[in-house]
Amino acid sequence: MLKSYLGIDIGSISTKGVVVTEEGDILASSYLWTEGNPIGAVKRLLAQLEEDLTGTEARIVAVGTTGSARELIGAILDAQAIKNEITAHAMGTLSLHPDVRTIFEIGGQDSKIIILRDGIPVDYAMNTLCAAGTGSFLSSQAKRLGIQVEQFGDYALRAERPTKIAGRCTVFAESDLVHKAQMGYAVEDIVAGLCNAIVSNYLNNVGKGKKIEAPIVFQGGVSKNVGVVKAFADATGHDILVDDCGHLMGALGIALLAKASGLEDDFDFSIRSMSFKTTGLECGRCPNNCEIVCVLRDEEFLAGWGNRCEVGLEQIMRPE
Ligand code: SF4
Q1: Beta bridge partners of 104
Q2: Fold of 99-245
Q3: 296 C-alpha to center of ligand 1: Å?
Q4: The ligand 1 atom nearest the CA atom of 284
Q5: 2-93+250-273 CATH fold
Q6: What are the tens digits of pLDDT across the range 242-281?
């Protein structure tokens, strides 16, 4: 029997999962789109992971969840660890780079920076409002230029004279890009300009006021874009480290945190055939009128949150 730990990172765009050994080696991993249905996405994720583990000796003894739907999925899976993305990303990155001092992360629709000193996260910032520097923005601009987003980085590296693109918001960047294309700039130079604009937008917004020091690790879906990696290296004057599993770092970190919890309970994949639903209730026992989100398994109350005191949950569990 091989003791292992499951970590799930459920974001609004993508859902990631890894199963790691006691030594922290990844045994199985999966990455798929959340499609607005975190419970459905986690069920599909579990099906893939179970298939990947077939024939191995792995037995999952602890589960961790992170990401925007961590409470919901944590309740459903009876997780031993439920932590925010900053903690999970820091933990995952430190397991591979114990001396990391800065983490850049650019995902599908948001971005963040984490500053660490001596293995401890000391500062962070997140940008969830502006899409200008994110993966979805890059995908839409690639489409506009008629190239595959996967080829974006290679185009950028071939640029001879990167053009300047105004990257401070999507509207400016889009109109500037159209303008530059009409002026006859080479696609390679426009793509390189866009990569530089994304990096400048990131450093001036998410990274504003942060003490960026090497070693720097870059992760999230956009870290696969070698053009953006080069732009970060040029702008910071440091090497930028990118891991193959950089897009799974939150899931890896929360799997390790589940292990670190010291709590163990055999995990059963049959949980994915159960029926779960969420419902909202208003407590109304005092003027706070807390809105409580409840998750039900096969119509039975499983967990709830949003209550400011215990009375809210007690009246759901023991209605008069
Ligand atoms: S959960 Fe507590 S604070 Fe919230 S409305 Fe009910 S009694 Fe008031």
Answers
A1: 113, 218
A2: Nucleotidyltransferase; domain 5 (3.30.420)
A3: 20
A4: 5
A5: Nucleotidyltransferase; domain 5 (3.30.420)
A6: 999 988 999 999 999 999 999 999 999 988 888 888 888 8
Q: pTM for the whole thing?
A: 0.83
Chain centroid, CA 196 distance in Å:
23
User: What distance in angstroms lies between residue 314's CA and the mean position of ligand 1's atoms?
Assistant: 10
HSE, side-chain direction, 13 A CA sphere, residue 151: 10
- Does ligand 1 come within 6 angstroms of the Cβ of 291? no
Phi-psi region of 70 (alpha: psi -120 to 50; beta: other; left: phi over 0): alpha
Mind listing the pLDDT tens digit for each residue in 6-52? 999 998 778 999 999 999 999 999 999 888 888 999 999 999 999 99
Buried b (16+ CB within 10 A) or exposed e, 177-195: beebbeeebbebbbbbbbb
Cα gap 85→208, rounded to integer Å: 20
Please check whether the two domains, 2-93+250-273 and 99-245, share a CATH topology.
yes
